Amino acid sequence: MTRALIIGGGIAGTITAIALHEAGHEPLLFEAYDRTAEGVGAFLTLAVNGLDALLPLGLKDVVKSTGFDSPRMSIALGDGTRLAEFPLGGTLPDGTVSQTVLRSDLYVALRDEAARRGIHAEYGKRLIGASQTSSQVRADFSDGSHAEGDLLIGADGLRSRVRTIIDPDAPSPRYVPLLNTGGFAEGLDLPDEPGMLNMVFGKRVFFCHVVSPDGRVWWFANPARKTEPTTSELATLAGEKLRAELLDLVARDRTPATEVIRATREIYPAWPTYDFPTVPVWHRGRMVIIGDAAHATSPAAGQGASMAIEDAVTLGKCLRDVAGVEPALAKYESLRRDRVEAVVAAGKRNGDQKVIGPVGRVVRDFFIKRAFAKPFDEDPNAFMWNHRVDWDEKVAV
């Protein structure tokens, strides 16, 4: 049995812990914050490839209980032209489709399930350093404590400490010139099918809304920002100032965006978008990174959580089937790197269409109209959600 120290108790870390537990190992979760992430975060859509990977871990129904079906999406322009409507990622054999969930609800469900299975978690454990020998790893925390194990897994996100411990020359995240914000509008009666993601390439901002089964409207927007905002600049872009900017950006669009923004009690403070085109070093000795720590992707890919799930299941399989920690980590990287870098590239391409000036918008809209004038022979994004990780298939050595 391998004792795995998992740094980061969010979605990626918790699913990794469950996968390792199912593979017969002993996972220990360490979260930097002294409280859980309950009530923190916006929403996400979990694609079918991620949901399918959860099935053998007994987690798919846990996840589905937190959200609602999102089987379809529509694409429109700011002038009101509706270009296309198509399935969002297909359907699994049992009828499961993509799910839209609150990040915090998903986290709580996974956290509680991990605890039910007897997985140990500690909070207020901020990693400051780690070291290793040929047979063990040691994690040192800011409170003066430490932990020892056979393996250290960095599931600690975009600003991963484990990534820089493994490789002090690791690249910094790349700024994608978009901000993210959103919220939940109440009291509206929009003529939309519940669960349908309505995406609009507006004249000045990309906007998406979806009506939940309870009638609330969940939405997000991606205001463009050419230069990376500072922390102080983001702090000032909040509350009613952010609402006013968003209302100005959507004012010329023939969409429900204006009434949705006005009907939102609290708008999420804006945060910047980042990705990693590539992270050269994923593992060293008995240390490895997964999820956003290794391959953060733009939300435009719609695959961040699903990539983390695929990572967790694949790592669990490798540690189950490959003799020795270091060979297992090398095998894990070989199975994952090409795929995740292709997804990151696709997310960047999708996001680039949102960062367009007035002249570029005219050209973009022309080509988008032409692209949707006839059905796709093959959806260029299909490779993302058609991928499957088979838990029962033995990893070839």
From TrEMBL:
<dbReference type="InterPro" id="IPR036188">
    <property type="entry name" value="FAD/NAD-bd_sf"/>
</dbReference>
<dbReference type="GO" id="GO:0071949">
    <property type="term" value="F:FAD binding"/>
</dbReference>
<dbReference type="Pfam" id="PF01494">
    <property type="entry name" value="FAD_binding_3"/>
</dbReference>
<dbReference type="InterPro" id="IPR050493">
    <property type="entry name" value="FAD-dep_Monooxygenase_BioMet"/>
</dbReference>
<keyword id="KW-0560">Oxidoreductase</keyword>
<keyword id="KW-0503">Monooxygenase</keyword>
<protein>
    <submittedName>
        <fullName>FAD-dependent oxidoreductase</fullName>
    </submittedName>
</protein>
<dbReference type="InterPro" id="IPR002938">
    <property type="entry name" value="FAD-bd"/>
</dbReference>
<dbReference type="GO" id="GO:0004497">
    <property type="term" value="F:monooxygenase activity"/>
</dbReference>
<feature type="domain" description="FAD-binding">
    <location>
        <begin position="2"/>
        <end position="345"/>
    </location>
</feature>
